[in-house]
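Q: What does the assembled structure look like for these inputs?
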Amino acid sequence: MIILRPELVAALSTGGVPAICTALQQALELEHSTIPPYLYALYSLDKNLNREIAQIIESVAVEEMLHLTLAANVLNALGGNPVLNTPGFIPTYPGPLPGGVESQLTVQLAPFSMSQLETFLTIEEPEHAIDIPTAKLALEAITAPVTIGQFYNRIIAEINKLSDSDFANPPRNQIGPDLMFESVVVTNKATAVQALSTIIEQGEGTSNSPDEVVGLDYAHFYRFQQIQKGKKLIPAPGQKPPWIYGGAPIAIDPAGVYNVPTNPNRKNYGPAQLNLCDTFNYTYTSLLKTLHDMFNGHPDQFNPALGLMMSLKSQAKAMMSGIPDPSVITGPTFEYQPTNP
Amino acid sequence: MSYLNSTRLHFAGQFQANVSTVNNDPGHFDNATFIPSYQEMQGPNFDPPNGWFNPEGDAAFRLLGCRVTSAWLPTGPVTNDPILQFLVADSDTRVCAKLVDLDSEQQLVSEIWGLQVRITDAQGNTLLRGDYDPAAFIDIWDRAIGSSSGGDVDAGAMYQSVLRNLWWGDVSASPFLMALQSAAVDGLLSIKFNVDSLNLDFTSDDFMCGRIVGTIGPASATEPFHMVMGRQFMAIASPPSPKINFFFPSGGINFMVGVVSEADGCIYLDLGNALSTTKGGGLSDLGDLTLGVYDPLASPGNPAGSVVPLGIVPSQGPTGYASDPTWYTRTAGIVVLPLTAAPLQAVSQAPLLLYVESATPPILISEWNTGSFVRADKFVFRLSPGDPSVEIAVYASQWGQPLAGATINFVPDASQLQPSNNISNDVPPVAVPLSALHFNANAVTNAQGVATLSIKASNPGTPRYFNQGQDYGLDGQVYGIRPAFANSQFSGPVNQWNFISFLVWSAFEVSDPATWDDLQPIFQQYANLYPVMNRFLNLGDYDSVKANARLLALAFSLDVGNANSMPVTRDLSPAKRRAILNWLKNPLPGAKCVAKAPEPSAARPAAVAGERPSFGDHMPKGGKAAAAARRLVLTNHH
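A:
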């Protein structure tokens, strides 16, 4: 599991809306930070040769985007203003995830491999001891490292201390299920808890089931584990636990992984690669600006944002597979670049 | 009022035009004969042609590294203004613009759709944002001389349009931008840029990129948006030898425009797309360019001895257009020559010319003898059968002023369209049936110099289907209509590019409810022609289309002006679009749901190498030059 710096939770102990908003902005940055590594691995795969694995990673990446939206909805409902349009919003790769303990996990931009899968599993690994009483958790949180699930549970605990009148109603700057499948419009404590619980459960599952509560798939950790175990997770009625990695085989075809660099660096790129990388980064920065606008009162920016995501997908697939020049393979660096030189 | 104005900025940088090229060959529209190799990169020297030079193109049009190079106010050049450190960029809140041919058989009026232009500070913070009215290039020519690549890399062309929906940031730190904002009283800016040196070598660092140099100034809502109401310098076509891909002016200087401003006491000349370049992109040294006016008493056909010089554009010296490597990017080719009262009076009713003294062969371009000119402002249209008439404004002018009471004829002219098939001899014909177009044969200009071409379409049928009409092919039909003065005294050497292009779509009806079988040919053709779509889905496969129905419904429902509109080629008829959107709500399968790889038809022989129609052994590299080579009439001697 990923371990967050204790300060993150400690800051919450002051309680109240400002502390929760600060924590939710950190949550936004954390949710976003998983997306570049997931997309880098996803687009390093030739989908014709590694379809199953690509589908699994893509399904997780899409839910991370939902989690970003849910965190922003709660933040907006509390009167906060999500910030996505600054250079600091994007972490440096390789490096720890935002709020993560630096020595614990260094996240890289890397083509798909079983070792990169280990990183993904670490990010998504559930914290099983979720029935620890809230009071005790708060006490421990000041001194002990916390998991992502615990972090969200601490936010939920603080939200439960608020009253419904602390939430904007009519809804403020919400991205609802009409735009984002499975999203939650947050207008009170109950919907805020529902939104954040969705994040926890889609990531980690519940203590007694890998099934998503919201959604039709398994929680991220178990979804990724299918690749590691080499078999699909299927129900095993009557057994304990009643699931087994015993379904259709999932095998990695090494020929279907493009030869992209690990932790690409613009300094190592020739002019042709730089041109592709710069346009990708400019598009990526445009997406963050557009999402920022979308989360700050411009839901009509949802479709333009979707278009930018499609453009990034198209560009990444071409760059990483050597289109147009098969001798030029380029990994996108996911850097903040508001100009296209 | 246009960019050719005392308040203006110039910018320069690179553009990307990542057009896809499978659709460059009309033969590739034949679903029945399409084979997978048509989606692959061409071989060396276009052998085999495959999918030509950029089969994976996504139609992206981008501004790259464009910087403001200078700015001008009525008081003169701007100094000490932050505008001089600013950038000209495209959108940062939506996807990039798209560059789109009207049709595979009219590739010489490619339009830019969905472009947003921004002026930003060096960090990319937006000071001004405006939406570019879709516009097509014009006046394409073989600009780079002494060059041997024989393709689009040698070509130059220009785009002129307006920016609307202007959003201004805090521009108080820039007196220039404040002045520009004040001058844009109609909420419009005029933008004109010249493009050249498009790189078609996929192993190059700058593949599908070229040079862009342009100008932004205020625009007026009452003037045309895509042309300047000014003095039109008319080039005359050279004989087609040695080989010319697009156009080369016999006088060495391409079509250009000037504005005589009594108020400003000067004449503005736009040489931006008029001066040839060397192979490296620097401007050719033609010698000092003299602006002169014919003495009204002299014969316009005899410039020697009867021309009054008005000013000189030097080629050499510290600011010579040929000697100063920054001249072109710094000025975008715009020259301002001061005129005192007497010359102003002299030029108001007599032809202007630009020439090089004693040059052999002569270097010269002039207005028509009568100073008259006629052109449609917007000159690319798409029509559906049964739609209300489209009213097209055609502007007539004389000496730069609106010409009222002139009769303009509207004459069908398919000479510049490009029927072709590089796969077989089954060439889809253009401009038939002409009976599908209904328009007035002529019109008289009003006080604003505007004659209205009123045009509507009936169903052209499917004249461009293959195999005697049995196999799905190109939708509808392309046509050209050329406006011309009825009174021949107003006429002069015709600009071959000065005509109006039309794509008239076929009527299309499907069974209710429609099934995949009804729409499969449409989807299959898109899958064939745009391999870039394979990054998202297999458009030729029912299951894949159905699985993506929600996203497809969104993309197909967007206004064609939206940068995200699907298909990017803007060649899907509204009738087919409606049918697709209806079907996507309930994507019923059909008998053709099992996708089959398209296979070559054995029924018809493919053209063998060396026998490709139109090209012969002068095969250009496969870009616009290849399309230009297919025109029905290569030089115009009207």
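The helical segments of chain B are 175-183, 327-331, 341-347, 516-529, 542-547, 549-557, 574-585, 624-629.
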